[in-house]
Amino acid sequence: MANLNLATLDTSEHPNLPTSSAVLFRAKADKQYSFEKIASEIGRNEVATAAIFYGQAKASAEDIEKLSKLLDIDHGHLQSLLGGFPDRGKSVSLPPKDPLIYRLYEIVQNYGYAYKAVMNEKFGDGIMSAISFSTKVEKETDKDGNNWAVVTWRGKWYILHLELD
Amino acid sequence: MANLNLATLDTSEHPNLPTSSAVLFRAKADKQYSFEKIASEIGRNEVATAAIFYGQAKASAEDIEKLSKLLDIDHGHLQSLLGGFPDRGKSVSLPPKDPLIYRLYEIVQNYGYAYKAVMNEKFGDGIMSAISFSTKVEKETDKDGNNWAVVTWRGKWYILHLELD
Amino acid sequence: MANLNLATLDTSEHPNLPTSSAVLFRAKADKQYSFEKIASEIGRNEVATAAIFYGQAKASAEDIEKLSKLLDIDHGHLQSLLGGFPDRGKSVSLPPKDPLIYRLYEIVQNYGYAYKAVMNEKFGDGIMSAISFSTKVEKETDKDGNNWAVVTWRGKWYILHLELD
Amino acid sequence: MANLNLATLDTSEHPNLPTSSAVLFRAKADKQYSFEKIASEIGRNEVATAAIFYGQAKASAEDIEKLSKLLDIDHGHLQSLLGGFPDRGKSVSLPPKDPLIYRLYEIVQNYGYAYKAVMNEKFGDGIMSAISFSTKVEKETDKDGNNWAVVTWRGKWYILHLELD
Amino acid sequence: MANLNLATLDTSEHPNLPTSSAVLFRAKADKQYSFEKIASEIGRNEVATAAIFYGQAKASAEDIEKLSKLLDIDHGHLQSLLGGFPDRGKSVSLPPKDPLIYRLYEIVQNYGYAYKAVMNEKFGDGIMSAISFSTKVEKETDKDGNNWAVVTWRGKWYILHLELD
Amino acid sequence: MANLNLATLDTSEHPNLPTSSAVLFRAKADKQYSFEKIASEIGRNEVATAAIFYGQAKASAEDIEKLSKLLDIDHGHLQSLLGGFPDRGKSVSLPPKDPLIYRLYEIVQNYGYAYKAVMNEKFGDGIMSAISFSTKVEKETDKDGNNWAVVTWRGKWYILHLELD
Amino acid sequence: MANLNLATLDTSEHPNLPTSSAVLFRAKADKQYSFEKIASEIGRNEVATAAIFYGQAKASAEDIEKLSKLLDIDHGHLQSLLGGFPDRGKSVSLPPKDPLIYRLYEIVQNYGYAYKAVMNEKFGDGIMSAISFSTKVEKETDKDGNNWAVVTWRGKWYILHLELD
Amino acid sequence: MANLNLATLDTSEHPNLPTSSAVLFRAKADKQYSFEKIASEIGRNEVATAAIFYGQAKASAEDIEKLSKLLDIDHGHLQSLLGGFPDRGKSVSLPPKDPLIYRLYEIVQNYGYAYKAVMNEKFGDGIMSAISFSTKVEKETDKDGNNWAVVTWRGKWYILHLELD
Amino acid sequence: MANLNLATLDTSEHPNLPTSSAVLFRAKADKQYSFEKIASEIGRNEVATAAIFYGQAKASAEDIEKLSKLLDIDHGHLQSLLGGFPDRGKSVSLPPKDPLIYRLYEIVQNYGYAYKAVMNEKFGDGIMSAISFSTKVEKETDKDGNNWAVVTWRGKWYILHLELD
Amino acid sequence: MANLNLATLDTSEHPNLPTSSAVLFRAKADKQYSFEKIASEIGRNEVATAAIFYGQAKASAEDIEKLSKLLDIDHGHLQSLLGGFPDRGKSVSLPPKDPLIYRLYEIVQNYGYAYKAVMNEKFGDGIMSAISFSTKVEKETDKDGNNWAVVTWRGKWYILHLELD
């Protein structure tokens, strides 16, 4: 019987994702694989793996080869679909409407200036990079059996310059 | 000589923050205290401390007492300013314009559906709470001397119900 | 003769609902079933049942089995359509244009801060969950024969934390 | 010592509320009264009482008299402030930014069409009035000590006509 | 020869109107009927008739029968298209772009508060219903041969309540 | 005792209305005059009178003289305030938030294309002028004691040209 | 060899123009006719001719006959496509993105109030009609060989009334 | 007696115009001068003169000297107010709300692509400059006594390049 | 093996680009050509070449001939696709969502007024043309092996006029 | 006599810039200094200098000392005004309304994807930093006496990572 707890993609709801998203999610549903499974098979982080599926991260030649084998997708076809460069940021509307994504956004909305103040004092005038950046999601279960999601962001700090060297 | 690396507040730029924000930031500037200093003095997390300053978190009676002493603000006055409930979310425009805050937002925009897919598969149909929630910012320096900001979010997972019990 | 008082779905008007919505509403129209009938057959609340049809609530394995039988939809097909996780919130535009939905929205717009003030004083600094939440719609007829709609929301109260434990 | 759990108003955050809101909330803070107290004194529902404070409901002559006495506000002054007709809906931004109000809004966003479908089938083609309407907030505590907020809406049903009589 | 003064519908311009709109307007064009003709045949007001065509008003069983005969549309097909409940308000963008509709909107934009002030003083605190409502368009020609459009709105007045009975 | 049913203006809520609005409404409140009273005294329609108060209609020299006398406002002062040309349309936000004004707007939103179709067929390709235009609000009470608001719009029809003569 | 300086229409870029636009532009491309040519053949102004092609102006019976002959389009087909009334204003987004159209818009944005002030003083309180209106584009070449575009607008002036006659 | 047909400025309605606008319009009102008068005195076009008053055009040293004398404004003061560079485009909201300005905008909205097509065919791929640009407003009265506003735009044509020379 | 570092186009993500974009990018992918290669073959700048592919720049007859040969696209077909005039500006949303394009935008957002102030003082009151304009992208590698992108804009300066000659 | 070609700041037009902007621009106007002069005195690039004035760049301790001396501003006062961290991006509206800034924006809007494609092929999947970034404006005069503005951007290239190290 089918697993009812796998992330899927319905292109009626996401008409502007790249063609690769439809192909990858279809294969994932056929195989009944979770992102945890796929990530461990291709040796990448789960969030990065899902980001490849949503067209938000670039797959390497090695990723494509592994995904092709794991998901039984023709290698040349997958290569042609994933060969270009991601056009990021289109999948989430502004502000996000889905409750799960909205809450991530709400944290930025509420604590944005608190983060800025603390980071500026800790690191100086600059930004935490969202490019030289990694992230992960972990699950903790406390002693009362409650689950907690732990999200970690790690980004390089860049000082803002504005002078010609 | 004045420290040029302290977060300050200019009410011309933020005319709709609560009155308490102006009072607290003025005192912070007079004392030349960092949020690290204030947080350690009142025994709260740095981000939570900054959130109180921006009117995004409620101060407890104990917080008010400690802030009043630490910053030389009349206790009754601070109590009356901080006695109500925060009206959150107004300080950050949509989308954020400041580069530091924009990058936090960009992570949600780019990876929102990747987080959703991974979290749904890990925890089921629900959300990571932004209310039963804690966060921190840490600084790491790698072997090449580069600084990295590490942001952690920890929120309780709530399964979505829609039935009367 | 066809019942002219059944909720239907025209995908020209809702091109971005999930595929499952079109399938379920088509079967509902063929069977000429009301949501009251379907809800009582599958043992769920009417609003939750309609929410499943609009892709706003996740159907359980049991829901899928019952819906499949009741509506003569192939079980495997329905399972594959409803197996993923809902991507919520896309069906209603901002602000709502339909007069019925607008009035629900208008109540929040007019009385939002009144609800906040009363709830904060009654429960403290936090929120009424929209996730650990149930709702129902009831019909009352007064002595003059006027009908009244009674909507009930019941959500768990969560206190806002912002500290690492 | 001041009660830290009373709803207050900071006009820096709400510069476009009517003058009466500032006057009423100031007096409420001075008296340290909750809305529960004020509502019971003037014989109105708590939400309606708070709505008067936010300029979203019209006070009757009797309300004004009672509020004037209870809060020690000059009767003529209060009468001139509350004599006009409310200009509703300006206090909540679109979409709401405060987490508590956002969740009320989110319920409408997610379940708007489910409510519409269920109400249309139950009552016919029309709307639940937001004008011939009453509401209340109640607190329930379950056996595990968790608090639940229960919001009730009761609105008259009006059938949509479009014909000259 | 074809009449060049009949309202028609081009679905390229209105992709989100209900399927019934396309069917009804196609038949109207084939028959070369004006709304005046159709309205008088089905015994309804012209604006209400056009509103049915645009999916903004619900057709009764009798309307469907008459439209089916008048326009040679299969009765069962029309019944299935018009059997649900209208999802109103999507056809006009905000603000309206068509000059004719924009001018109707402009009247509300310019005189909205003047109407509110006059109505509030005449009727009290409430609204003119847009639901218990009828409207018509009439043509007058003055002595200089100029045409004038006269639009009438007639809506029930509802006093705003906010108390539980 | 003060009349609690007179339209007033609170400039906190309308900071961008012209200075004349504040002056006229203050005088109206002092005199405790309704728009019906003022309109009959200056010999203009009630809606037009209210439109002058809101800065949406230009007062003639005669209007200014009469308003000055009726409301005890210095004639020169009123003349200098009302001497320019109205800058219309700023008072109503988009879409309107006040429930009374929203319902006027909703009529245009729902029936805009129905009006267009009926008017085009009746008058040809053009518009009903919102400039060569008059309007009124009337009150009807039916045999059951219900009040009905009747709004009339009368605008000249202009055919759309696009050719040099 | 094809003329590379003819205005064409790509429906991928303009999916919501009327069907007639696609038909007319296709025929124009096949014939390799400029708007100057077409306008002179049908005896209308160039801008008006192009406006018919974009669905912004109504073609007369005579226009349709001439266009049908000139462009070899079946007369009955063209008549059915152009028989209704234009639904204007959808082709240009807000603000315009194309640089040529943006600059027209920018003139209104920068000098809108200057035009208003000058026109009000010259003509009184009213508007220049965009309906009883004609326009043309002319080309001038100065002595240095520079080209200048000269756009003329000629609109009737209507005084704003607001009184019942 | 004061002229009731002079353009004035109320800074409540335009809080973000430059300080010079308030000073110039105040002096204009005191002198009771029309823009026609001022323009002819300073030797500039009426629209350009009004544009200086609204902060949309830069005054030359000679303009400042003449305006200072004509309007009795201290020369040094006017020079300091007008010495910088205009920050254009803020006075008109998007889309314009005032009916007069809206109609100018509507012409661009309706005929934007018609202008583009005609201009592209006449001049090639480029734009009519809004910078190397002049404009005027003229009044015509036809034989029936109707007034017509004639607006002329004259802009240099620039071909779009995209190559390094 | 396919090159994974070539820019490609997925029309699901860009449904409103011109048909020519799909044709050109398909041929580019088939040939596995970079823009550097194509630009050098047709003798144009890389950015201008890419702009032709995205429908943002007009191809000359010579460009079309060269592209047709280089990419094996039927000359007549390419000529008919590229024969019209570009309808620019639709490909980038506002604000840009893709991180690379957002950063270009951010530079304008942050330093827009700094550029204006410096340019105005250097050149007078006017603009740097975006039409009489060229641009290029260069790659520099510093001694530490870091790559730097250098973008150059060169636009003619036009003084703003507003007078008839 | 005053220089009419210096950039100035009118706080009516920019009410939300930091207090330091008003102070610095006031002193600049008093001294009648250009940014070229100030930049050369403090040893920074002109654009960076202007960015400090607009609150978009952080001044170093040395900058503050030099600005204080050069502009006769009290050192302690300037230090307290400039001691915090810039809150960037608020000065430019979206899209920019001023013609000069709009054209910078238009370049990004038109050529954004062309830049992305060229940069991705040249540098890989990543971004040109707007933080590790410098910029300058230069003036060129060609042999015909035309002025050209040359803007250079130089930003470090960062490859997008998404993996934990």
From TrEMBL, chains A, B, C, D, E, F, G, H, I, J:
Domain of life, source organism: Eukaryota
Query: What is the protein's given name?
Result: Cyanate hydratase
Give GO MF terms, alphabetically.
cyanate hydratase activity; DNA binding
Q: Which organism is it from?
A: Helicocarpus griseus UAMH5409
User: What the protein does?
Assistant: Catalyzes the reaction of cyanate with bicarbonate to produce ammonia and carbon dioxide.
What HAMAP family would the database entry show? Answer: Cyanate_hydrat
Query: Looking at the keywords, is rRNA-binding present?
Result: no
Pfam families per the record? Cyanate_lyase (PF02560)
Tell me where in this chain the Cyanate lyase C-terminal domain is found. Answer: 90-158
* Taxonomic lineage: Eukaryota, Fungi, Dikarya, Ascomycota, Pezizomycotina
Q: Which reaction does it catalyse?
A: cyanate + hydrogencarbonate + 3 H(+) = NH4(+) + 2 CO2
Q: Coiled-coil segments, which residues?
A: none
Q: Which PANTHER family match?
A: CYANATE HYDRATASE
CDD domains tied to this protein: Cyanase_C
**Would you identify the family this protein belongs to, as annotated?**
Belongs to the cyanase family.
Q: What is its EC number?
A: 4.2.1.104
Keywords (alphabetical) are: Lyase
Q: Where is the active site?
A: 103, 106, 129
